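Subject: sequence -> structure tokens, single chain

Hey, anyone have a minute? Need the predicted structure for the following. Not urgent.
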Amino acid sequence: MIAAFEAGFEAINSVVGNTGTAVTAITLGGQYEGALAEALGSGSQHLGLALAAVQTCYDFTYSFSDDQGKLGTLSNLVKNIANNAVGYFGSAALQVGFAGVAVFDVVLSTVQSDMMELKLENLGGVYQYYNDVESPRSVKEWRRIFISILRENADDTETAQQLINQEIDSFCDRFWSLDYGKVKEIAAVSGLKYSFDERQWTKDREVLTQQYRGYLMAHLQAPLTSARNYLLNQAMEQAQREFEKQLLAMQKELNKTVKVQIIEQPEKAGEYKYEGYTVRFAPISSSADAKSWTGKMPKGGEMNTSFTVLGHMQSGSPNRLELYPAGKDSPEVTVSFKVSYPTTTILISSSGKEKPEQQPPIESSTEPSAVPETKPKPEYAWVLVETINENYQANIDNTNKGGVYEVSASASPGSYTSTWKYIGDTDTYPDPDQINGESFATQLTFSVPPTVIKGGETVSLSFNLAFTDDNLSYFDGTGSARADWGNVKFTNAAKKSHFEIYSSVKYSSKSVKSIGDTISAVIPAGYSEGDREELWIGGTGYGTYFVYEWKQIS
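Reply:
Had a minute. Here:
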């Protein structure tokens, strides 16, 4: 761990001014002992790790590579630093941020920029319309999903990467799980030309899915990069806080004042040999003030002085005491010593022989030790800070612009409505007839979530979804309901998380005109103060993001 020591002292090089000597004094020379040596050693190491964490976050935030070899090296480096830093600091933000680098950079390296545009035809066009217009997933929601996966799997980057790819694959596969009647409805709503039948409509599934996935990955660069940098910025903030904390702790150790007792031990009581001798600490650096480290041995054979740990380091970390007779340039006596806190005692024998080092006395007290006051542990919870209603107005405007369908949607916390109407020409060729004016409307009501949610708390929500207008012939009507907390899905007693209503004349046996239930989820605790998470409540075409922040509440 010498590198960590060196990094720690490099961080305060402008203060110490003699990094090499200081590192040698602590790591190799053994010039400090006892609790002081332990504090300086661990403090230097922690400071170095904190500095490395800050530098790592900074480097990876402003650089991205798609070179597979570099990504492998980067991943190993990130894991190594994360394991060391998290081991010392116990910081989830650091671990999640470093995991984000290891995972997102690998995923991003597979993106083909030439796939930004895609125009599939026939069934492929309907498939793309469903994913991009009929049932899209916003950049914000993708970003939320990516962040949630990383937070829940920060200690296993391979699993996190697999889950991200599974989430993308699942999105691309949704269309193929629809029944043929729903696919035909989407095709009609899309306004695209199409020709496919019920028996073979899935025959090109693999090719179309692969093409669309490449196109989707290109569009996921933004949420992937945003999630990556968001987690890294959180890690950088945490690393900076740790660095400042370790720097202050190190500063406290460096500013400690050490009392020094220089005591002559005469062979006969009262016969002191070194009275008037020049006393010098050695070796000292060329930049040190020599006079500050020089004195005269007084009567009585005892000399007292002091220095700070920082001053000792800046002056070259002297580790021996030299005594010079008057007018002499060479020391008559040299005594080695180690610095201990709070008092360093240096014993000098009148015979000129070096005395064994004296261990600092163990301080004792007859006074009862004070019982520290126990402060209540701060309590944290998710606090509602923002509510965002979403009705995908851009999609509504795009559909209405075509002049074939007239749609609308409204969203407010706990209450959502949608309408759909066919305003194209009547066509009696299909069976049943395609009739101008056929329509449907839905209403979804949800209980509003609490404004404060504690980590580990179970939140239950009740909902009801029904058709408020059902005037259909050729087309089918649909509506859906769900609630998600990040990657955590709210489920009913049967573990079902997605609920739909369906109305069809042709497939009337499959119709479900209304549905209601209570769904619940256990809300996980936040990682660090300031974390944000979103609770989505709604369905296809409308919903609300309830934005929560992890805050101290007591």
